User: What shape does this take?
Amino acid sequence: MGRNMLCGSFQYWRKLEKRLYFNELQQAEDDTWIGKRRDELSSLQTQLSNLRGRFEDHVERYDGEFEVLEDYGDSIRYGLIEIGGFVRHQKLSREQRESLAILEKANMAIHDGRQREPANTDPPRRRRTSTPTRASRSGKSKDERLGGES
Assistant: This one.
């Protein structure tokens, strides 16, 4: 019985040793995989921060340019609507913007009204009918005139 017990314990030990070996191997492979992913993640974070910085630079640059463009467009509209001419590089006050909006709404209302009612108040002309031809006065059908049977 002692020998069987020793033999069983030895076999159990070998199985346990094999399992431990594969567990350690799997742990080493997992550590390697996780290390690679960690390196890739830090690389992607660096790229993202660089991209974010470039994006913020572009936003700052174009934000100023769009503001100038918007002011320029407003000054042109103001000059054309309020003054009747062209005004360059003028920032509009709140009162000027309100006046501009009111005039544009009034102009659109007038335009819409003119689209519904034509400016021409003359009665429409009657379309002239075609004048009768000699062939139509003879009373013959088209087939008879062309030599066909009716």
Notes: The two ends are 129 Å apart (CA to CA).
